[in-house]
Amino acid sequence: MNKEIPKDFYITSDTWFGRPQILQIANRLDFQTIEDMDATLIKNWNKRVKKTDVVFHLGNFAWDPVTARKVLKKLNGIIYFIRGSQDDALSEVIGEFPKASFLDQAIIELTDFDLVFCHYPLAVWNGKDSGTIHMHGHTVFSHKTNLKTERRFNVCTDFWGYAPVNYLTLKDFINA
Asked: Which of 164, 155, 14 is nearest to 77 (CA)?
């Protein structure tokens, strides 16, 4: 990845804006309707992320192009996306948003941060045995973060208060 990454950035995945079934699939019982969920996720995102902050979204952003367009207009930050298993809707509209872009690879290594990003949880990644951290999405129920077993974070929005999580917060978890 050839982009300049600030020392402090955010990461999330599997927001699934506009997908009615996600309320049941991900057990998002805090929300009565998909409109309520979308509004809350946008509000939470913008409370944490400022307009110039960098956000990595590790896939499964929105269910349909209309929703993807509507949500991208409202979100703060410069957003880099890794394609998820269901990002066709985002692909249709991302070109309209200069603050949003897809990253070219499915696995991103940020060697300056000792990080590996992927939409999917990996069993093995570069640097796993030497302390490199793996961050992923895709699994809203399984592969929960357990730093006692390995240096891997599940960054699905469901596990982080329905908002992007700050990289430095995750580093604090590891250092604690």
From this structure: 164
